[in-house]
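Entry:
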Amino acid sequence: MVKNMKRNEMKNENSDNLAAMGIGAMIVFIALILVAAVASAVIIQTAEKLQQNAQSTGDQAQDQMASKVMPLSIVIQTGTSLRMTFELAPGSESITPGDVAFSVICAAGTDAGTLNGADGVSANAGGAGVAVLLPGQIYVVTLNVGTCQTGTPNVNHYLTLAAGNAGFTYEVLSYGADTTSGTVVV
């Protein structure tokens, strides 16, 4: 009988060891599932943040290009005025001429104003004194430059155009030896 008892105890002990190993394996499996869930949550959160950053950068780039004014040519009109032919950049939104500011910077100081008084040149641009600048249309406007007069030969002045909170344009006005009316500076 003692012999039978020892055998039964051995069987129970073996069964207990197998059960303990099974419970341990189950605990490790559950821990791995929890770690995988946390890791996937971190990856998903990072992917969402990257997508939001990319969207924000794209929106900022679009805003920078929206309603950007592109000068086609700038000609000396008189000693104190320039005639600029321009259009809006492709993909721009329409904008009022009063929302586009210009600055001409020279050694003597700065002349500034808006593009109010712009006239449409192309067929659908709206003619004289347009209220709205449309993309794909060509316009002309007179820039008054009393401080940065155009009569000084062989100098450079700098023109900046800012369309509201959107596009920004920078041009160098190069005055050569000839500074008479009709001379092209850009």
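The mean pLDDT is 86.
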